Amino acid sequence: MAIFPENDTILKLDGITRVFPGVKALDDVSLAVRHGEVLALVGENGAGKSTLMHIVGGVLRPTSGRIFLDGNEVKFQNAHDAQLQGIRVVYQELSIVPNLSVAENIFANSQPVNALGLVDRRELNRRAAEMIEIFGEDIDPDMPAGQLPIGKRQILEILKALTFSPRVVLLDEPTSSLSGSETETLFRTIRTFKEKGVSFVFISHHLPEVFEIADRVTVLKDGVYQDTFEISDINEDDLIRSMVGRSIDEMFSNRSFYSGKVCPVLDVTGLTRRGEFEDVSFTIHAGEIMGFAGLVGAGRTETAQAIFGINMPDSGSIKINGSVADIRSVRDAIKLGIGYLTEDRKLEGLFVSLSISENFVCPSLERFTLKAGIMDDSRISSYAGEM
User: DSSP characters for 100-161?
Assistant: First the structure.
């Protein structure tokens, strides 16, 4: 059991264990967060980082173990209890209400009211503008939040967490949708609030960001606490070794490159859609992974959507296995063997009111339909089980 200096600790977790049916997600995890520090929490997928965050945020209760704030034990029955104690969580899954304004989202459930008990919209927008200015963003407080691009929505989530004098802020992959400049602004804002005594738990898979913003870093592996390091006492190689249990001698495996004689699976030439992207050309061969890099607004998503038939390009050609592909709809793209994973997986990629099984078969309903046009439930269940 770890021993912590109580006078320097705002948040202490002592022997936190969380068991789900058949899985021990966390096993006797103890760690401490100091006043006014950024503690990075790292580990592979499945290490228990998000589960720990949900417990601290009051969403889940630990199977065993204790939580202390400023030396006093606390027990959260729900997320509201944690918020009342000054703990704010920015989840990776966004919780923006799209048809409410930016200001209404920032001050959700706590809008300023006038003498009649009605929302004081002028004061609401003024306070929201102050918060937006702290982050250095040019966002209209009165615009519907659903009109914001995904990166700005992530910023809005962070602003919500910083609104009510938080003591501890937990950030789960906060930079996953941010551009480089937006990440710099986030880090500048974190440092500003650190100077005011606010503590942060920063969860990230981007290790260079960890070394840039964190004071210390805690490693979890398979739900078990490994170690906590001062950021100045460890390098990236040692941190990776602590996360995966072995050294990583080679970040990229040797890959064979294809000669020009091999027909590419996908050949895009001069693809253009005015105002979004221009003269995009590339080829992809069988078994190859190509990455698209660029800032927010560079046209990466729009290019993918044009190839998938969501939006029609103005000019250019697409070839599949050497043959010109006439893609005029998503249905055409699917028939040609093209798949698309959306940027906003919750809003655009899932039918959240349907079952998991129904979501699995949505792109290929013909395969699971009987002659009378009735869905074949047994085939759907069998396929979903296999998946």
Answer: SBHHHHHTTT---B-TTS-B-HHHHHHHHHHHHHHHT----TTSBGGGS-HHHHHHHHHHHH
